[in-house]
Design brief:
single chain, Endonuclease Iii, domain 2, Endonuclease III, domain 1, 2 domains, globular
Length: 200
Amino acid sequence: MNYLDQLRELEKLGNSMIRLAAEEWDQHWKILISTIMSARTRDEVTIRIANNLFKKYPTVEKLAKAELKEIEKIIKPVNFYKNKSKNILNCAKTLIEEHKGIIPLTFEELLKLPGVGRKTANVFLSEIGIVAVGIDTHVHYISNKLGWTKNKTQKGIEEDLKKLFPKSIWKEINPILVRFGKTYTSRKKKDGLLEKIKSI
């Protein structure tokens, strides 16, 4: 079984035109905030709402001074918007008060920020070019289906994938699997393709 070939097959089958929530932002804080917002929310919704938020608050300093109710009003279409609004405001405040508005670039420091868990930290790091593997629902499902892991926890799956794949491509894993997962919304179609890929 060639895991690398399987990954490349997933890449070929996924729609490369799909923009993911962490991609194409011009500043680090925007990548982080949109990734916080993207949990359990469709990327296309997150991108649209993040654009609205960043239009109203074009700097992290302005976001840190925002009213909670204003953030809630803007990001209402994303799931768990009340909780995320608190996290976004507190994250922006923490960045200003403790980091002079600059996002720390280590996994451990990122985890100390409000609203940032393993997946958000890893997706952020890989987006800015630091090797990491972000585990979301797509990565969880596809990795288990293909037998890359038997783990059910984010940390366990992450560790298994890091053992399986060379470090040089860790940051490709999440975008490839997420694009594949988003391209085939029918579970039946997805599972059929995964069965074929399994035999590679």
